[in-house]
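Record type: ASSEMBLY
Status: queued
Input:
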Amino acid sequence: MGTTDTDPAGDRHPGRRGEASLQAIAGRAGVHISTASRVLRQTEPARGWSASAQRVLAAAAELGYRPNRIASSLRTRRSNTIGVVMPRLADTVIATICQSVESAARSAGYQLLLTTPPDEMGAQLEAVDFLLSRQVDGLIVSSLHLSGPNARLTDLPVPVIATNRHPGSWMPAVVGDDVDGGRTATEHLLALGHRRIGVVAGPRHASTGVERVEGFRLAHQQRDLVVDEALVVHSDFEVEGGVVGAHTLLALADPPTAIFAVNDTAAIGVMGAARQRGMRVPDDLSIVGYNDIPVVAQLPTPLTTVHSPTAMMGALAVERLLAAIGGDPLLGETLPVSLVVRSSTASLSR
Amino acid sequence: MGTTDTDPAGDRHPGRRGEASLQAIAGRAGVHISTASRVLRQTEPARGWSASAQRVLAAAAELGYRPNRIASSLRTRRSNTIGVVMPRLADTVIATICQSVESAARSAGYQLLLTTPPDEMGAQLEAVDFLLSRQVDGLIVSSLHLSGPNARLTDLPVPVIATNRHPGSWMPAVVGDDVDGGRTATEHLLALGHRRIGVVAGPRHASTGVERVEGFRLAHQQRDLVVDEALVVHSDFEVEGGVVGAHTLLALADPPTAIFAVNDTAAIGVMGAARQRGMRVPDDLSIVGYNDIPVVAQLPTPLTTVHSPTAMMGALAVERLLAAIGGDPLLGETLPVSLVVRSSTASLSR
DNA sequence: TTGTAGGCGTTATCAT
DNA sequence: ATGATAACGCCTACAA
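Status: finished
Output:
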C-alpha cells in the first residue's frame, strides 16, 4: 500500500509535515490532479469557474493549500529565485542595496537566496557554487575583487550581474560613478584652497575605493597639482579603519589640512581621530565622506559627502538581471553621483 | 525518444542549462545512477574507493557536477533552508543580526531565504506564506508586532523563532533584556541629577521600544519619582524620527535636560536637533542611545548607549531553531545588556 | 473542459 | 558493493 491508492474520499497524501498536496485537493474535489493543477494556476475564465473548478478552489481554501514550489521548480526548471552574494551586510550601504534588491525581486515574483560570506574571493565563489546548486535563476554579487580567481564567473549556467563594486569591465555591473564622485569630492576641497589632502582609501581590491582615489588623482591632475603618495593610506571600510588611517595621516610631519574618506563610515572614524587629537572639524580639519548614509546629515558636525544612489543600484541590478533571465542581453550601468556640501568642510584660512 | 534511453556513451541528459546530472555521471562512469548517487554522498570507505566509485568521482569532477538540491529536497523533504523575515534591513541593528544568522546557518549547512517586507504584520505574514511554500525547514522573524493577526504563527508546519523583537511571551524569542537596558540607561541619567528626562520611544508596536520605556518608568519608580507623560514621545526608529521627537520635547514649556532615545540612530537624530537649536551635548543636553552600533563610539561627541548583543542574538536564534528542527523543544532566551558611558551625558550642573 | 501518462533529478528500499 | 524501481509533488503535452 503506497500513496498511489484510489482512495475516493480524498484528503490523503499528507505531504510533508501534514501539508495538503495537490493530490489531496484533487481527491477532495473529486477531480483528477491535473485538473486541480490547472484550475489553481488559472485566472477566472471568461464564463466563470466550472462546477468542478469551484470544488477545487473550495478544497484548496479549506485545506489551506500551499503549493510546493520545490516540486514545481523541479518540473519547470525555474526556481523563481535569485542568488545574492553580499559580504559585509552589516554595512549600511550593502544592507540598503540588499533591501532594494529584495523589494524589486519580490515585486517581480522572485525570492532571494542570500549569503554574506567573508569579503574574500574564495569564499564568494564558494557561495556562488552553493547558490547554483540550489538552482537560482540568476545571481547578484556585490563585492567582487579587482583581481583573483573570478574568471570562473564568466561561464555560469545563469546570468550574473555585479553591483556596488565591479571586478573589471569584462563583467556587467550596476555601480555608481566612483571616479567622478572622487573627483568631485576632491575638487570641492581644492576649490576651498586645500593643497594637502589626505585619503583614507579603502582596500586595494575594491573598485569603489580604487576608483574614488582615481578621481582624487584626476582632480589634482586637472589643476596640474601633484599628489603626495604619502597622503594616500589604505584601510578597510569600517569605522576603525578611518580612525587608524586618519591618525597615520595626521601624524605626518607635514599633515593634511583635509581628509577624503572613501566611505562615510570611515569618515566618521576620521572625525573620531580628529576629536582624539583635539582638532576641530572643519576649523582644523576638513572632512569629506562618500555614500551619504542617513546618519551623517545629523551628526554634530554634518558631513559633506558624495551621495550615491544605493537603493537605485539594487533595483536596477534586479531589473537588468530579470531581463537577462528573460533572454535579453545583460547590460550594466554606471549611475551618476552628486556632492552634498554640509558643515565638515571649510576653506583653508591661512 | 525520451530520456529513458540506454545510450551507452553517457554524457547525455543535459539537465537544465546544460548542467550535468547524476544520470550523466552514471553514464560516463558506466554505472547505474543509484550507484553514482551513493558514491557521491559517501565519505571514502575504510578500504578505499572501489574501481567504479573512482570512475564516478572522476566523471563528476570532469563534468563539474553540481547536485541539484531542488530535486534532492523534493525527495528528502528537507530543503536545508531557513526562511528569514527581516523588515528594515537597512538598519544596522537588523543587518547585523541578519549577517550573524547567515553565518551561523551557513556553517551548519543551511542557506537563507531572505525577505524584508514592510514593517507591518500583514506583509510579514504574507512573507511567511511565501517562505513556507518554498519548503523552508524553519523560520526566523525579527520584527513582529505586539498586536495584530500573528496568531497565525502558532500553527505552522515548521518551527518559528522570533528575534530582536518579540510579539508577546507566547512565542519563543531570542531578544535582549530591553526592560533592564531601559532601566539602566535611565538610572544613569537620574544618578547624574537629571529629573526631567525625555524619551524618544519608537513605535508602539515594537517590543524593543515599549520595554525600554518600561525600564525607563521602572527606574523612576525605584526612586519614587513620577514620570511626566509629556516627556514620552513616540516615533519611528529612523534618524528623522529622532530629530522630530527631540524638537517636540525641546519645544516644551519645561523641556527635558536629558533625552533617552530607544535606539542609536534616533539618538543621532536627537543630536542633530540639539545642534539645530544651538544646544551643546552634553553641556546643555545629555543624550543616551541604545544598541551601541559601531559609529557612535567615534562621533564628535561619543554617545553613551546601551550595548546590545546583536550578533549573538542572530547566532543563538539559529542555534535554537536548528535544535528545534532536530526535534528538540524550541527555547527562547533573553540576553543581558550593559551600559556604555561615553561623552554625551554629564551631570546636571544647576 | 477534463483525464492520461510521463518525467523533472534525486534518494531510499529492495533485491541481487 | 551494485542495480532495479518507485516515489517526492507538480506540470504539460496529448488524447478524449
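Annotation: Chain A touches chain B through 65 residues (CB under 8 Å).
Annotation: The two ends of chain A are 93 Å apart (CA to CA).
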